[in-house]
Amino acid sequence: MRTEETSVLVAGGGLVGLSAAVFLSWHGVPTLVAERHAASSPHPRAVGFTPRTMELLRAVGLGSHVPQVPPGARLRRARVQSLAGPWSEETPWTPRGDDGPPDEAPAIEYSPCRGAAIAQDRLEPLLRDRAAELGADLRFGTELLTWRQDDDGVLAVLRTGDGDERQVRAGYLLAADGTRSPVREALGIGRGGRGHLGTSRSVLFRAPLEEYLESGVSQFQIDQPGLQAFLTTYGDGRWVLMFADDRERDPDTLKSTVLQAIGRTDLPVELITTGRWELSALVADRFASDRVFLAGDAAHTLPPSRGGYGANTGIEDAHNLAWKLSSVLSGVSAPRLLGTYDAERRPVAWLRHDQIFARADHRRFTETPGDAGTPILDEEAMEFGQLYRSAAVLTAGEELPPAARPERWAGQPGTRAPHLWLSGDGERLSTLDLFQRGWVLLAGHDHWAAAAERASERTGVSVKCRRIGDRLRPREPEEFLRAYGVGQDGASLVRPDGYIAWRSRDLPARPAGELTAALAQVSCAALAPAPSR
Asked: Which residues are catalytic?
C-alpha cells in the first residue's frame, strides 16, 4: 500500500476540522483533512459566531467574507405563547451584575470585530475554500479507518467511499471527529461534566416570518399547553423548531406543530429536514495523548447556548494548537510546547461548561436553582477576558481569576492582548493586526529593538519589535501604557495567537538578556550560547 506523508492529519472536516486546516495552512503546515461525509450537514446547526472568532477569521483573510451583526446587537430571547400570540417576558443571557460599568459610562470598544450571525452550513464552505487556497489537502467522502502512533508520528489508513484504502504518515493527528469521537474512544480518554441531558428532535423549515424579528428578538421559548419548544431563525429565511422530547413526528404533524408555534395558519411553510441529537455536557479528561490531540466536540460537548460556547470554543481550540504545531514541526520549539494546549484549553472548556449551567437558560438541568459557588461572569469577560496559565506564559499566578472584564486586566501575561486603534503612514489599524503571524514585541523604547534582534538570534524564534508611539501612534499617548500595563520604557511580548506571554514594566539593566531568557522559556526553544566578547 502506497504511503503518503503530511505534517498534520485532521480527522473530521466539520467546522472545527476546517478551521484547523485554515489555521495550520496559514502557518505553512502541510495538512490533510479526512471527512467521511461527502459534504456539510444538511442541518445548519450553529448560527452565532463571536467577535473573538471573527478576530481569528479576520487574521486569515476571511473577515470581509462573513457579514457581521450591526453595532450593539445582542442575541435576545423571549418567552412567548407563539410568535403571533402574547409575549410574556424577555430573558437575558447574563444578568446585570456589579462588575460591569455604570449605565452612564461610555461604551468600551473591545475589538475591531463584531459577532456574526451566519449558519454553519454557510460558513463551512468559506472555510473549505480558504483552506484549499492556503494549500490544505481536503478529502471528503474519506474515512479514517485505523491509526496508530509511535515515537516518530502517526500511521493511519484512510478509506474512500469507493473502498480504496491508502496509508498516510503524519507527524501529528488532530481529532475533530465529533462528540462520539472514535479517536478519543480508542485512546480510552474519559469525560466528566453534567453528562447526558436528554435527546432532542428538531425540524428545519422555511417561512416568511421576518415581521416577528423587527423588535430585535430572534430566539423564542414557546410556552403553551401541549407545546413546549424552542424556535429560532438562521437569518436567511430558515427557522428551526426544537422539541424537548424524542418523539418522532410525521410531516403533517410537524407542519401543524410549526403553525401552532407561529400562531397562524395562513402562512406557507416548507419543511426542509429534521434532526435528532443527544444533548450533553461533557469535557474530556485529557485533550492530548502524545502525538494525538482532541478539539471541538471531541474534546468538549457543550449544549447550545447564547454564549456560543460550543462551536466558538472549538474554533479557538484549533487556533491555539495551530501555531504550536507549526513551531514544533519547524524545529524552532521543543515538543513540550504542545503540552500547553491541554493546560490552556481544558480549563476554558470547564469554565464555559460551568457558566452555561449557572445561567437561567439551562438552570432546569441543575439540582438547585442556580449553581451555588459558580458566580456568573459577564459576556465581555467570557469573550475577551479569559486567562491562560501554562509553561507558555510567565507569571500568570493562581491569585488571578480565570476570567475578568477586559478593562479589569492591564496587560497581564496570559491575557488576550488588548485592541487599540493605531495610526501611522496614513492608515488606521488595530493592535490585533500586528499579531497572528509570529511573535511580536510591543515597546515604546528604541532599546527593545536591539533586544528583540539578540533574542531572535539566540533562540531561533523570530520576534518582530513594533515601537508604539513612533510610526504607530495610539489615540492618546498614555493609552498603550495603560492597556498593556507597562511604563514608558516597558515592553510586552505577544504570542502568535495574540496572547501576552511576558512583559517588562520598565527597561531592565539587561533588556536583551531578560527578553532572551523569557522568550526561550515561553516558546520552549533551545538557547544558543551567548557570543563571546
From this structure: 212
